[in-house]
Amino acid sequence: MNPPLRVQWAIAGFVAVFVGTVLAAATALVNSEERDALEEARQRAERFIAGAEASLNRTLLGVDVMLAGSEALLRPHRLANGTYDVTGTQSQLRTTISQNLLVRDLVLLQPDGSVLAAAQPDSARLGLPLPPGFVNDAMALPSPQLVISPPLVNFVTTERMIYFARPVDMGGGVRVLAVAEVPASLIASLLSQAADIDGLVATLERDDGQLLVSVPPHDTLVGQRLPQPLGEAMPTGHAEPGPARIGGAPALVAVRPVLYRPLLVAASIPIEAALADAHEQRRFVLAATGLFLMMVLGAGAFAHWHLGRLAQARAALNRSKNMLDEALASMADGMLLCDPNDRVVVWNPRFLEIYPWLADVVAPGVPFERLALVGVNAMMPDAAPEDQQGWVQRRLAIHRTEDGQHEQILPNGRVIHAVERHTPDGGVITVYHDVTAAERALERAKADAEAANKAKSRFLASMSHEIRTPLNAVLGMNGLMLNTPLTPEQRRYAELIRSSGQTLLALINDILDLSMVEAGRMELEIVEFDPLATVNEVVSLLAVRAEAKGLVLAMTSSPGLPTRLRGDPSRLRQVLFNLIGNALKFTPDGRVDVDVTHRPLPGRRVELMISVRDTGIGIDADTLPRLFRHFSQGDSSTARRHGGSGLGLAISQEIVELMNGHIDVHSTPGQGSTFSISLPLEVVQQPMPALSSGGPDPSPAPAAEAPAPQAARRILVAEDNGVNQILIKAMLDHLGHFSDIVADGFEAVRQVQAADYDLVLMDIQMPGMDGEAATRAIRSLPGDVSRIPIIAMTANAMVEERAAYLAAGMNDHVAKPLDLGRLAAVISRVTCPA
Fold first, then answer.
1. Virtual torsion, Cα 500, 502, 507, 508, nearest 10 deg
2. Is there a smaller number of Cβ atoms within 10 Å at the N or the C end of the chain?
3. Rounded distance between C-alpha atoms, residue 328 and residue 458, angstroms
C-alpha cells in the first residue's frame, strides 16, 4: 500500500528540500572553493612577486655597488704614470668575484671595447660577447648607472650569461666600463622559490617584452620579445586576470619593477592550475554529499594548511626585510628614502653619521620638510630668518627635482655630494657620498698650480729685465752708431746687429705674451679707435719691408666702415703685424693684399673682418691643424729658411679669442694663403678723445727714423747702469736736450730739489731707493717740484707692473730697449700736452 498522498508529498517534499538543500550547499561550497582558490593563487602570486623583487633588488644592488667601487678597489694597484699593474689588478678582480658567488667574471673595458683587466684569463684574452653598441651606449650615459645586457652565450663556457655594466671614473680623466658577468642560471635560481607553487611561471623581462630569465626555463624564448610588453601595463604587483607571459593561457599575472629599470619581474599562474584543487574538491563533493562531516574536517585541515602557508609567507617576508636592512647598514654612503608624499620611509646608519643633528627627528612618516627645517639650524645657525627660509626652499626644490644632485659643505668642513633619484611610484631615494678628501686634494692641487704659475711669472719678469737691460745698450748704441758716418761695410754690420737685436726683442715679447695667456692674465685695454687708421698704420709701417723684397702691399676697405669702434687697437696692431709680417716673410714674389670689411650685428655692433691674402709658398693640409700650436711652424725647414719662434700665430689666436672673435686660414701649397680674423666690436656714437691712452704698443717698432725737432729741455736721468747712462745721454744730446745723470733714487730726490728740471727719466730697478719709491718721494715734496713730469724707463714688460708705475705717480713709461723715435714722442707727450 502506498502511503497516503499527503505523506508521499511530505516525503517527496522533504527529500526534495533535503536534496535541494544539499545541492545548494554543495553548489555554494564549490563556488566558494573556486573563489578561494583564485584568491589564494592571487595572494601566492603577489607574495612571490614581492619576494622575487626584493631578492633581485638585493642582488642587483650588490652587483651595482661592486661595479661602482671598482676605482677604489683598484686604486692600490694604480701606478705613478696613471696605468694599472696588470698582475695586481687581475688578482684583485679574482679576489672580488671569489667573494661574490653570483658573479663569474669582473672585467674593465676601455671606451673602445678593449679589455683593460679581467678576473678570468679567457675574458682577458677573448673579450666579452657584448651586443653591438653596448659599450658606447653605456659610456654615453649622462650619469653613471647600471646597464644590463640581454642573455648572451659565453665564448668559453657556452652558458647563457647576463652582463651588468656601469661607467666608472678611474681618476686622471680615465673613464672605463666595469662589467660583471653573471650566469643566467644563477639569476633563475633567485626565482626558484616558485617551484612549490603549482603551474606558476616566473619571468624576468625588460619593459619592451624581451625575456631574460624564466622559471621553469624556456630556452627557445630567451632573448626574444614576448607578446604584450609589460611596459604597457601598470606594474603594481597586484595579480590581475590576463594571458600568461609564456603560452598565453588565461592566468593570474602579477608584475613588479625591480630597482633598476627597465627590468620587470612577472609571475603567471594559469587559471586552470589555480582551480585544479577546487575542481577536484567539486568532484569529491558531488560524489560524497552524504559525508558532510568529512567535508567539514577536510575544510578544517585545508584552513590549517592555508594558515600555515600564510605564516610561512610572513616569515619569508620578514627575512627579506632583515636582509635589506643589513644591506643598507653595510653601505658606505648615507641613504634616505621618501614616499610619494615626501615622507620618510627608511634610512641607514650612515645617514645619521653624516647628519647627527637629525637623529632625534628622523622617523618613518616624518615630512622631509621637517628634516630641512632642523638641518638649516645646524647648517646656518647665525643666519637671518629670511636667509634660512631661502636655504630651506632651495633644498626642497632640489629634492623635488627629477634626478637632482648637489653638494653641501657641513659646519665641520666635510663636503657631501648628494644624488637624488625618483622611484617608479613617485618617491625619492637620496644617496649622500662624503667627498671631503677629494675636494681637499683638489684645493691643494689648485694652490700648488697657482704658486707654480706665479713663480713662472716672476722668473719671466726677472729674465725680461735682465735681458732687456743689456739689449737696451746694444740697440741704443747701435742706433747712435747708425746716425754717424760709416763705411758701407760698417753700416751693413751695424744693420745686422740692429736686425738681430730686434728679432731677440720680438722673441722676448712673444714669450711674455705667451706666459700671460697661459696664466690667464692677458687683459684688453678697451678704448675708442679708428679701425681703418689702425690697419693703415700697420700697412704703412710694413710697406718698407715689402718694397725691400720687391712685393706689392695693398689695402682695400668696404664703404660705410664705421670710423669709431671700441676695442683694443694695440692688440689688434700686434695681430696684424704678425699676420702681414708672416705674409711678407713667406712670399718670395707677388703681392700681399689686406681687405677690411664689416657687417652689422644687433645692438649697435659690427663684425670687423680683416683678411690678409698672399701669393706665397702656401701651407699643406697636414700642417694646417697644428699651425696655431705653440712653437710650431709648417716644418723644420721653414724655421731654418725663414726664421721665427713659432709663437706669433698662437699668440694671435689667443688675442683674437680674448676679443670674442675667431681666426681662420685657407691655403693652397704653391699658390698662397689667406688668414682672416673676425671681431665683434661696439660702434661708438660720441666723439673720440683727442689722445690715446698712452699704453704700451705691443707691436714691434719700425726702423728708427729721425724724430721731429723739439724745444730743448733740461732733463734729469736716474739710471744706475753705466752703459745705459752713456746711451741715454747720447740720445738726449741727439734730440737737443740738456741732461744730468744720477745713479739712484736718493740722488734723484735731492737733485730735483737742487735744480729746475722740465722732466725726469726714472729707471725702476736701482740700488738704495728704486724708481717707484723715488717717484712717491718727489710727489710728496712741497711746491711745484712735486708736479714735475716723470717717465718710467723700464725693462719690465708685464702689463700689471707698468700699471703699478703709473699708480706710483709717473706720467708715462718707455720700454727698454729705448727707441729714439719713441723716446722723443713720449717726452713731447708729457711736456707738451694737448
1. 120
2. N
3. 54
